[in-house]
Amino acid sequence: MTDSELFEGVDVGEFHAHAHKHEGKIALSLKGTADLRAQELLDAFLKRADACARADSSGEVLVDVRSLEFMNSSCFKAFVSWIGRLQDLAPESQYRIRFLSDQRMLWQRRSLHALSCFAVNLVSIEGG
Amino acid sequence: MTGTLIGSFELVFRPSVDLISVVRRFVGDFYEKTLGSDGGEQLALATHELLENSVKYGQSGETKLCIDVYREPPQRYIAIRTQNEANADNVDVVRTLVERLKSGSPFDFYQVLMRESLASPNRSGLGLARIAAEADMSLSYAVEGSQLTIQAECRLPEAA
Q1: What pTM was computed for the model?
Q2: Of A66, B44, B137, which is closest to residue B52 (Cα–Cα)?
């Protein structure tokens, strides 16, 4: 873990996830390939992100997946679980999740759209 | 099948977690060569999810992967199959999932499964549902003895 990291990241197989502050907000950066090798560690990483966001007052977490080549359904489920925990919070304690995406990648267009439909008021997608 | 077979391969192997991503990239290139640039990503996604399904729930570890691409002007027909040994419980899970998928919109069912997955820490079915909802492919299955075959198929317009 480097000095600039907010909490412990993930480096496993071809997958890398790290958390920083960006313009006062919690920013998660995901790179590589998120497959079965990364599933448990990603789940734990997103739980740490959730705990950090609950203690933070910025009201939003940025998730940059532009360099994430592929994410399998098990890792996708880790995001569904994170959003489910967020939906269980009282409205005044909830925060938003904003994905930064590369819309040229099919999985990003489709999977992130599914997540945004799952939690319309909590998830937004930006993509070029 | 009335079309012309323009690409086909079979791979029998013991897929490991490491190997699946290798195969996904390989079949992505295969699809690009046989289909042009359109469709390769969605078919690679489907192949990846089918193989992970075999790794997680297959009984013997050995999986056969078959991919056929037919030319049916003005379309291409693509079928991806995985075959592996499966126990009765796994067959039941697949049967139920495929039947639920056929009963309505794959995307709506995907949303329902996402909600259900919050209460089931183990098997969610999201991988197979994703093939229908995100890769726009139809799913079917067949059982012969202890062998379970899952097929994903679709038709894509021919590349210009």
Answers
A1: 0.93
A2: B44
- Asked if B127's CB is within 8 angstroms of A36's CB, the reply is no
Q: What is the largest CA-CA distance in chain B?
A: 46
Tokens representing residue A5 in the block:
């990291």
Could you give the ipTM of this predicted complex?
0.93
Per-residue pLDDT tens over the stretch B106-135:
999 999 999 999 998 777 789 999 999 999
Question: Which three-class secondary structure state does DSSP give residue B59?
Answer: coil
- Structure tokens that stand for A59 in this block: 């009201």
* C-alpha distances out from residue B152 to A114, B5, B26, B30, B142, Å: 20, 17, 18, 17, 12
Q: A74 to chain B: which residues are within 8 Å by CB?
A: 52, 126-127
**What is the spatial distance between Cα A124 and Cα A120, in angstroms, rounded to a whole number?**
8
DSSP A49-102: HHHHHHT-SS-EEEEEEEEEEEE-HHHHHHHHHHHHHHHHS-GGG--EEEEEE-
Q: How many angstroms separate the CA atoms of A32 and A14, rounded?
A: 5
Please answer yes or no on whether B48 and A72 come within 8 Å at the CB atom.
yes
